[in-house]
From TrEMBL:
Compartment(s): Membrane
Any one of the GO CC terms: plasma membrane
Cross-referenced Pfam families: Transp_cyt_pur
Family as reported in the entry's similarity comment: Belongs to the purine-cytosine permease (2.A.39) family.
Entry keyword annotation includes Transmembrane: yes
Region (Disordered): 381-403
Keyword Transmembrane set for record: yes
Membrane topology term: Multi-pass membrane protein
Record GO terms (molecular function): nucleobase transmembrane transporter activity
Domain of life where this protein originates: Eukaryota
Name used for this protein in its record: Allantoin permease
Native source species: Trametes pubescens
Keyword terms of this UniProt record: Membrane, Transmembrane, Transmembrane helix
Stored InterPro entries: Pur-cyt_permease, Uracil/uridine/allantoin_perm
Length: 418
Protein backbone atom coordinates (compact mmCIF):
# COMPACT_ATOMS: atom_id res chain seq x y z
CA UNK A 1 0.00 0.00 0.00
CA UNK A 2 2.78 2.42 0.87
CA UNK A 3 4.62 1.57 -2.33
CA UNK A 4 1.52 2.41 -4.35
CA UNK A 5 1.11 5.77 -2.61
CA UNK A 6 4.73 6.93 -2.35
CA UNK A 7 5.92 5.51 -5.65
CA UNK A 8 9.35 4.27 -6.61
CA UNK A 9 10.96 6.41 -3.92
CA UNK A 10 9.67 3.81 -1.49
CA UNK A 11 12.03 1.26 -3.04
CA UNK A 12 15.03 3.57 -2.75
CA UNK A 13 15.06 4.67 0.87
CA UNK A 14 18.49 5.92 1.86
CA UNK A 15 19.38 3.74 4.84
CA UNK A 16 18.68 0.05 5.37
CA UNK A 17 18.93 -2.40 8.23
CA UNK A 18 21.88 -4.81 8.28
CA UNK A 19 21.05 -8.39 7.18
CA UNK A 20 21.28 -9.59 10.79
CA UNK A 21 18.05 -7.73 11.64
CA UNK A 22 16.05 -10.09 9.46
CA UNK A 23 13.86 -7.53 7.71
CA UNK A 24 14.04 -4.47 5.49
CA UNK A 25 13.32 -0.89 6.47
CA UNK A 26 10.23 -0.84 4.27
CA UNK A 27 8.73 -3.94 5.86
CA UNK A 28 9.55 -2.72 9.36
CA UNK A 29 7.79 0.60 8.72
CA UNK A 30 4.76 -1.24 7.37
CA UNK A 31 4.72 -3.52 10.42
CA UNK A 32 4.86 -0.58 12.84
CA UNK A 33 2.04 1.25 11.07
CA UNK A 34 -0.14 -1.86 11.05
CA UNK A 35 0.69 -2.53 14.71
CA UNK A 36 -0.13 1.06 15.72
CA UNK A 37 -3.49 0.98 13.91
CA UNK A 38 -4.38 -2.20 15.79
CA UNK A 39 -3.83 -0.65 19.22
CA UNK A 40 -7.00 1.51 19.51
CA UNK A 41 -9.16 -1.50 18.67
CA UNK A 42 -7.80 -3.27 21.75
CA UNK A 43 -9.88 -0.88 23.85
CA UNK A 44 -13.15 -1.99 22.25
CA UNK A 45 -15.23 -4.83 23.61
CA UNK A 46 -15.86 -7.64 21.09
CA UNK A 47 -19.56 -6.77 20.74
CA UNK A 48 -18.50 -3.34 19.44
CA UNK A 49 -16.43 -4.82 16.60
CA UNK A 50 -19.29 -6.26 14.60
CA UNK A 51 -19.16 -3.42 12.08
CA UNK A 52 -15.51 -4.24 11.35
CA UNK A 53 -16.20 -7.87 10.50
CA UNK A 54 -19.28 -6.92 8.48
CA UNK A 55 -17.18 -4.49 6.45
CA UNK A 56 -14.49 -7.14 6.00
CA UNK A 57 -17.04 -9.70 4.83
CA UNK A 58 -18.29 -7.35 2.10
CA UNK A 59 -14.88 -6.20 0.85
CA UNK A 60 -12.84 -9.41 0.80
CA UNK A 61 -14.81 -11.51 -1.77
CA UNK A 62 -14.78 -8.82 -4.51
CA UNK A 63 -11.04 -8.32 -4.04
CA UNK A 64 -10.30 -12.05 -4.25
CA UNK A 65 -12.39 -12.60 -7.37
CA UNK A 66 -11.04 -9.39 -8.90
CA UNK A 67 -7.47 -10.64 -8.51
CA UNK A 68 -8.45 -13.99 -10.04
CA UNK A 69 -10.02 -12.24 -13.03
CA UNK A 70 -6.84 -10.22 -13.51
CA UNK A 71 -4.76 -13.41 -13.53
CA UNK A 72 -7.14 -15.06 -16.03
CA UNK A 73 -6.92 -12.04 -18.32
CA UNK A 74 -3.12 -12.10 -18.23
CA UNK A 75 -3.02 -15.75 -19.32
CA UNK A 76 -6.05 -15.46 -21.63
CA UNK A 77 -7.80 -18.12 -19.60
CA UNK A 78 -5.03 -20.72 -19.98
CA UNK A 79 -3.46 -22.60 -17.08
CA UNK A 80 0.16 -23.62 -16.68
CA UNK A 81 1.35 -27.17 -17.11
CA UNK A 82 1.56 -29.24 -13.96
CA UNK A 83 5.31 -29.69 -14.41
CA UNK A 84 5.89 -25.94 -14.64
CA UNK A 85 3.65 -25.20 -11.68
CA UNK A 86 5.04 -27.81 -9.32
CA UNK A 87 8.62 -27.78 -10.58
CA UNK A 88 8.60 -31.57 -10.91
CA UNK A 89 7.79 -33.98 -13.71
CA UNK A 90 6.73 -36.78 -11.36
CA UNK A 91 3.18 -37.01 -10.13
CA UNK A 92 2.08 -38.93 -7.04
CA UNK A 93 -0.03 -41.97 -7.75
CA UNK A 94 -1.62 -44.73 -5.75
CA UNK A 95 -0.67 -44.82 -2.09
CA UNK A 96 1.57 -41.76 -2.47
CA UNK A 97 -1.40 -39.73 -3.74
CA UNK A 98 -3.61 -40.96 -0.91
CA UNK A 99 -1.06 -40.01 1.73
CA UNK A 100 -0.60 -36.62 0.08
CA UNK A 101 -4.33 -35.90 0.27
CA UNK A 102 -4.63 -37.18 3.83
CA UNK A 103 -1.56 -35.22 4.92
CA UNK A 104 -2.91 -32.04 3.31
CA UNK A 105 -6.23 -32.39 5.13
CA UNK A 106 -4.36 -33.07 8.35
CA UNK A 107 -2.29 -29.92 7.81
CA UNK A 108 -5.45 -27.89 7.23
CA UNK A 109 -6.98 -29.27 10.42
CA UNK A 110 -3.82 -28.29 12.27
CA UNK A 111 -4.19 -24.73 11.02
CA UNK A 112 -7.84 -24.66 12.12
CA UNK A 113 -7.19 -26.36 15.46
CA UNK A 114 -6.44 -23.05 17.17
CA UNK A 115 -9.81 -21.67 16.05
CA UNK A 116 -11.55 -24.86 17.21
CA UNK A 117 -10.09 -24.54 20.70
CA UNK A 118 -10.59 -20.77 20.92
CA UNK A 119 -14.05 -20.63 19.35
CA UNK A 120 -15.93 -20.08 22.66
CA UNK A 121 -13.89 -16.93 23.28
CA UNK A 122 -15.88 -15.07 20.64
CA UNK A 123 -18.84 -17.34 19.79
CA UNK A 124 -20.19 -16.80 23.33
CA UNK A 125 -21.25 -13.30 22.27
CA UNK A 126 -23.84 -14.74 19.87
CA UNK A 127 -27.51 -14.30 20.70
CA UNK A 128 -28.13 -18.06 20.64
CA UNK A 129 -26.17 -21.26 19.87
CA UNK A 130 -27.85 -21.82 16.50
CA UNK A 131 -26.45 -18.52 15.24
CA UNK A 132 -22.96 -19.87 15.81
CA UNK A 133 -23.65 -23.36 14.47
CA UNK A 134 -25.11 -22.47 11.09
CA UNK A 135 -22.61 -19.69 10.52
CA UNK A 136 -19.70 -22.08 10.91
CA UNK A 137 -21.30 -24.96 9.01
CA UNK A 138 -22.01 -22.79 5.96
CA UNK A 139 -19.36 -20.08 5.95
CA UNK A 140 -16.24 -21.90 7.17
CA UNK A 141 -15.61 -25.00 5.00
CA UNK A 142 -16.88 -23.74 1.64
CA UNK A 143 -15.16 -20.32 1.55
CA UNK A 144 -11.94 -21.90 2.83
CA UNK A 145 -11.97 -24.51 0.06
CA UNK A 146 -12.96 -21.91 -2.52
CA UNK A 147 -10.14 -19.61 -1.41
CA UNK A 148 -7.60 -22.39 -1.87
CA UNK A 149 -8.91 -23.17 -5.36
CA UNK A 150 -8.78 -19.50 -6.35
CA UNK A 151 -5.18 -19.28 -5.16
CA UNK A 152 -4.18 -22.33 -7.22
CA UNK A 153 -5.90 -21.07 -10.37
CA UNK A 154 -4.43 -17.58 -9.97
CA UNK A 155 -0.90 -18.90 -9.47
CA UNK A 156 -1.27 -21.21 -12.46
CA UNK A 157 -2.45 -18.37 -14.70
CA UNK A 158 0.43 -16.09 -13.72
CA UNK A 159 2.92 -18.92 -14.25
CA UNK A 160 1.53 -19.40 -17.76
CA UNK A 161 1.57 -15.68 -18.54
CA UNK A 162 4.80 -14.50 -16.90
CA UNK A 163 6.77 -17.70 -16.33
CA UNK A 164 7.08 -17.25 -12.55
CA UNK A 165 5.39 -19.24 -9.79
CA UNK A 166 4.07 -16.92 -7.08
CA UNK A 167 2.19 -18.62 -4.26
CA UNK A 168 2.43 -15.63 -1.90
CA UNK A 169 -0.13 -12.91 -2.49
CA UNK A 170 2.28 -10.15 -1.51
CA UNK A 171 4.82 -11.39 -4.07
CA UNK A 172 2.08 -11.38 -6.69
CA UNK A 173 1.12 -7.78 -5.91
CA UNK A 174 4.77 -6.72 -6.18
CA UNK A 175 5.02 -8.56 -9.50
CA UNK A 176 1.95 -6.73 -10.80
CA UNK A 177 3.56 -3.37 -10.04
CA UNK A 178 6.81 -4.44 -11.68
CA UNK A 179 4.92 -5.66 -14.73
CA UNK A 180 2.84 -2.49 -15.08
CA UNK A 181 3.75 0.68 -13.18
CA UNK A 182 0.68 2.66 -14.19
CA UNK A 183 -1.90 4.65 -12.28
CA UNK A 184 -4.71 2.09 -12.65
CA UNK A 185 -2.37 -0.75 -11.69
CA UNK A 186 -1.19 1.07 -8.58
CA UNK A 187 -4.78 1.87 -7.57
CA UNK A 188 -5.84 -1.73 -8.08
CA UNK A 189 -2.91 -3.09 -6.09
CA UNK A 190 -3.61 -0.59 -3.31
CA UNK A 191 -7.23 -1.74 -3.01
CA UNK A 192 -6.23 -5.41 -3.11
CA UNK A 193 -3.58 -4.87 -0.45
CA UNK A 194 -6.05 -2.92 1.69
CA UNK A 195 -8.62 -5.74 1.58
CA UNK A 196 -5.95 -8.34 2.39
CA UNK A 197 -4.65 -6.21 5.27
CA UNK A 198 -8.21 -5.79 6.56
CA UNK A 199 -8.65 -9.57 6.50
CA UNK A 200 -5.48 -10.07 8.55
CA UNK A 201 -6.51 -7.21 10.83
CA UNK A 202 -9.75 -8.95 11.76
CA UNK A 203 -8.02 -12.31 12.12
CA UNK A 204 -5.48 -10.90 14.57
CA UNK A 205 -8.22 -9.32 16.68
CA UNK A 206 -10.53 -12.32 16.78
CA UNK A 207 -8.11 -15.25 16.66
CA UNK A 208 -5.08 -13.91 18.54
CA UNK A 209 -5.75 -10.92 20.78
CA UNK A 210 -9.20 -11.86 22.07
CA UNK A 211 -8.35 -15.51 22.99
CA UNK A 212 -5.19 -14.38 24.78
CA UNK A 213 -7.11 -11.70 26.67
CA UNK A 214 -9.84 -14.18 27.64
CA UNK A 215 -7.28 -16.64 29.01
CA UNK A 216 -5.38 -13.90 30.85
CA UNK A 217 -8.62 -12.64 32.40
CA UNK A 218 -9.50 -16.13 33.59
CA UNK A 219 -6.04 -16.80 35.04
CA UNK A 220 -5.39 -13.39 36.62
CA UNK A 221 -8.74 -11.60 36.99
CA UNK A 222 -7.33 -9.18 39.56
CA UNK A 223 -4.93 -7.76 36.99
CA UNK A 224 -6.50 -8.36 33.57
CA UNK A 225 -9.73 -7.74 31.78
CA UNK A 226 -10.29 -8.09 28.02
CA UNK A 227 -8.95 -4.63 27.25
CA UNK A 228 -5.80 -4.97 29.34
CA UNK A 229 -5.19 -8.46 28.01
CA UNK A 230 -5.31 -7.35 24.38
CA UNK A 231 -3.03 -4.38 25.04
CA UNK A 232 -0.57 -6.63 26.84
CA UNK A 233 -0.61 -9.12 23.96
CA UNK A 234 0.14 -6.33 21.47
CA UNK A 235 3.09 -5.17 23.55
CA UNK A 236 4.49 -8.70 23.80
CA UNK A 237 4.06 -9.25 20.05
CA UNK A 238 6.27 -6.26 19.32
CA UNK A 239 8.89 -7.31 21.87
CA UNK A 240 9.13 -10.80 20.34
CA UNK A 241 10.29 -9.30 17.00
CA UNK A 242 8.24 -11.61 14.74
CA UNK A 243 10.20 -10.57 11.64
CA UNK A 244 13.23 -12.20 13.23
CA UNK A 245 11.37 -15.47 13.67
CA UNK A 246 10.21 -15.53 10.07
CA UNK A 247 13.68 -14.77 8.76
CA UNK A 248 15.78 -17.26 10.69
CA UNK A 249 13.79 -19.70 12.81
CA UNK A 250 13.35 -22.73 10.53
CA UNK A 251 12.64 -24.87 13.57
CA UNK A 252 9.93 -22.48 14.72
CA UNK A 253 8.25 -22.63 11.32
CA UNK A 254 8.43 -26.43 11.39
CA UNK A 255 6.75 -26.33 14.78
CA UNK A 256 3.93 -24.16 13.42
CA UNK A 257 3.34 -26.65 10.60
CA UNK A 258 2.93 -29.55 13.01
CA UNK A 259 1.54 -28.07 16.19
CA UNK A 260 -1.86 -29.54 15.39
CA UNK A 261 -0.81 -32.58 17.45
CA UNK A 262 -0.75 -30.27 20.48
CA UNK A 263 -4.07 -28.56 19.77
CA UNK A 264 -5.99 -31.64 18.59
CA UNK A 265 -6.10 -33.26 22.05
CA UNK A 266 -7.20 -29.97 23.59
CA UNK A 267 -10.20 -29.64 21.30
CA UNK A 268 -11.08 -33.33 21.60
CA UNK A 269 -11.05 -33.26 25.41
CA UNK A 270 -13.21 -30.12 25.44
CA UNK A 271 -15.76 -31.76 23.12
CA UNK A 272 -15.76 -35.06 25.00
CA UNK A 273 -16.05 -33.33 28.36
CA UNK A 274 -19.06 -31.23 27.38
CA UNK A 275 -20.96 -33.60 25.07
CA UNK A 276 -20.23 -37.01 26.61
CA UNK A 277 -19.02 -36.69 30.19
CA UNK A 278 -21.10 -33.73 31.45
CA UNK A 279 -23.93 -33.97 28.93
CA UNK A 280 -23.94 -30.22 28.50
CA UNK A 281 -24.28 -29.31 32.18
CA UNK A 282 -21.85 -26.73 33.58
CA UNK A 283 -22.29 -24.63 36.70
CA UNK A 284 -21.10 -21.37 35.15
CA UNK A 285 -20.71 -19.37 38.36
CA UNK A 286 -18.59 -22.12 39.94
CA UNK A 287 -16.25 -22.08 36.96
CA UNK A 288 -15.06 -18.63 38.09
CA UNK A 289 -14.21 -19.74 41.64
CA UNK A 290 -10.67 -20.76 42.57
CA UNK A 291 -11.36 -21.27 46.26
CA UNK A 292 -10.06 -24.53 47.77
CA UNK A 293 -12.69 -27.21 47.39
CA UNK A 294 -14.55 -25.35 44.63
CA UNK A 295 -16.50 -27.46 42.17
CA UNK A 296 -13.98 -27.15 39.33
CA UNK A 297 -10.70 -26.95 41.26
CA UNK A 298 -10.05 -30.72 40.95
CA UNK A 299 -6.56 -31.61 42.26
CA UNK A 300 -4.97 -28.25 43.11
CA UNK A 301 -6.58 -26.77 40.02
CA UNK A 302 -5.68 -29.60 37.61
CA UNK A 303 -8.03 -32.14 36.05
CA UNK A 304 -5.79 -35.22 36.16
CA UNK A 305 -8.01 -37.18 33.78
CA UNK A 306 -7.63 -34.46 31.16
CA UNK A 307 -3.86 -34.22 31.65
CA UNK A 308 -3.35 -37.97 31.21
CA UNK A 309 -5.62 -38.04 28.15
CA UNK A 310 -3.80 -35.08 26.62
CA UNK A 311 -0.38 -36.69 26.86
CA UNK A 312 -1.71 -40.04 25.62
CA UNK A 313 -3.03 -38.37 22.48
CA UNK A 314 -0.06 -36.09 21.91
CA UNK A 315 2.75 -38.59 22.43
CA UNK A 316 1.68 -41.06 19.72
CA UNK A 317 2.44 -38.77 16.72
CA UNK A 318 5.13 -36.85 18.62
CA UNK A 319 8.01 -39.03 17.35
CA UNK A 320 7.07 -38.27 13.76
CA UNK A 321 6.76 -34.58 14.63
CA UNK A 322 10.35 -34.63 15.91
CA UNK A 323 11.38 -35.96 12.51
CA UNK A 324 10.30 -32.69 10.86
CA UNK A 325 13.32 -31.04 12.51
CA UNK A 326 15.73 -33.23 10.55
CA UNK A 327 16.09 -36.02 13.13
CA UNK A 328 16.02 -39.56 11.74
CA UNK A 329 12.84 -41.40 12.78
CA UNK A 330 11.15 -44.60 11.51
CA UNK A 331 8.96 -44.35 8.44
CA UNK A 332 5.94 -45.46 10.47
CA UNK A 333 6.44 -42.50 12.81
CA UNK A 334 6.49 -40.13 9.83
CA UNK A 335 3.25 -41.62 8.54
CA UNK A 336 1.71 -41.21 11.98
CA UNK A 337 2.71 -37.55 12.00
CA UNK A 338 1.03 -37.06 8.62
CA UNK A 339 -2.26 -37.95 10.29
CA UNK A 340 -1.18 -36.52 13.63
CA UNK A 341 -4.20 -34.30 14.22
CA UNK A 342 -6.65 -37.16 13.75
CA UNK A 343 -4.63 -39.59 15.87
CA UNK A 344 -4.00 -37.18 18.73
CA UNK A 345 -7.60 -35.96 18.82
CA UNK A 346 -9.25 -39.39 18.67
CA UNK A 347 -6.90 -40.99 21.20
CA UNK A 348 -7.20 -38.09 23.65
CA UNK A 349 -11.00 -38.05 23.42
CA UNK A 350 -11.37 -41.81 23.88
CA UNK A 351 -8.88 -41.95 26.75
CA UNK A 352 -10.57 -39.04 28.53
CA UNK A 353 -14.03 -40.61 28.35
CA UNK A 354 -12.60 -43.96 29.49
CA UNK A 355 -10.80 -42.40 32.44
CA UNK A 356 -13.96 -40.55 33.47
CA UNK A 357 -15.78 -43.89 33.48
CA UNK A 358 -13.07 -45.65 35.50
CA UNK A 359 -12.32 -42.64 37.73
CA UNK A 360 -15.49 -40.50 37.76
CA UNK A 361 -15.16 -36.79 38.38
CA UNK A 362 -16.76 -35.70 41.64
CA UNK A 363 -18.34 -32.55 40.18
CA UNK A 364 -20.67 -34.35 37.76
CA UNK A 365 -24.33 -34.93 38.63
CA UNK A 366 -25.39 -37.97 36.59
CA UNK A 367 -29.05 -37.36 37.41
CA UNK A 368 -29.14 -34.28 35.16
CA UNK A 369 -30.47 -34.69 31.64
CA UNK A 370 -28.93 -33.08 28.56
CA UNK A 371 -28.31 -29.35 29.22
CA UNK A 372 -30.79 -29.37 32.10
CA UNK A 373 -28.92 -26.59 33.89
CA UNK A 374 -29.19 -24.39 30.81
CA UNK A 375 -32.94 -25.00 30.64
CA UNK A 376 -33.31 -24.10 34.31
CA UNK A 377 -31.31 -20.93 33.78
CA UNK A 378 -33.46 -19.94 30.79
CA UNK A 379 -36.65 -20.38 32.80
CA UNK A 380 -35.29 -18.30 35.67
CA UNK A 381 -34.43 -15.32 33.50
CA UNK A 382 -37.02 -12.56 33.41
CA UNK A 383 -35.27 -9.98 31.19
CA UNK A 384 -33.85 -11.15 27.83
CA UNK A 385 -30.18 -10.49 27.22
CA UNK A 386 -30.45 -8.14 24.23
CA UNK A 387 -28.04 -5.70 22.73
CA UNK A 388 -29.10 -2.98 25.18
CA UNK A 389 -28.14 -5.12 28.14
CA UNK A 390 -24.87 -5.97 26.44
CA UNK A 391 -24.02 -2.31 25.95
CA UNK A 392 -24.95 -1.54 29.56
CA UNK A 393 -22.74 -4.39 30.77
CA UNK A 394 -19.92 -3.04 28.66
CA UNK A 395 -20.21 0.42 30.20
CA UNK A 396 -20.25 -1.02 33.72
CA UNK A 397 -17.20 -3.14 32.92
CA UNK A 398 -15.27 -0.11 31.76
CA UNK A 399 -16.18 1.75 34.95
CA UNK A 400 -15.69 -0.96 37.57
CA UNK A 401 -12.69 -2.85 36.17
CA UNK A 402 -11.75 -6.53 36.29
CA UNK A 403 -14.29 -7.64 38.91
CA UNK A 404 -17.18 -6.37 36.85
CA UNK A 405 -15.60 -7.98 33.79
CA UNK A 406 -15.87 -11.37 35.48
CA UNK A 407 -19.56 -10.89 36.31
CA UNK A 408 -20.22 -9.77 32.76
CA UNK A 409 -18.39 -12.82 31.40
CA UNK A 410 -20.48 -15.10 33.63
CA UNK A 411 -23.70 -13.62 32.26
CA UNK A 412 -22.55 -13.86 28.64
CA UNK A 413 -21.33 -17.44 29.15
CA UNK A 414 -24.69 -18.43 30.63
CA UNK A 415 -26.49 -17.01 27.61
CA UNK A 416 -24.20 -18.97 25.29
CA UNK A 417 -24.87 -22.23 27.15
CA UNK A 418 -28.60 -21.62 26.85
Amino acid sequence: MLRCVIGKRWDNLGSQFPPSVGTTLQRFIGFLIFWAIELPFCSLRPNRLRWLYTFKAWTLPPSVFGLLIYCLVQSRGQLADDDALTGSSTRPRGAALVWLVVGSINSAMGNWSTFIANMPDFSRYAKNPSAVMWTHIIFVPFPAALGGMIGIFGTSCIQRAWGVTLWNQWDLLDAILEHSWSGPARLGVFLLAFCAALFNFGTILGANLLPFASDATALLPAYFNLTRGMWFCCAVSLALMPWKLLASADGFLAFLQGYGIFMGPTAAIMVADYWVVRRGNIHIADAYSSAPGARYMYFHGFNLNAIVAYFCGMMIPFVGFVGTFGISVPRAATRCDEIGWYVSAVVAGVVYVTLCRLRPLENIDKSLSWEELAVQFAKSREVPHDETDSEQGTAETEKEGPEMSIRDDIEVSCVHVV
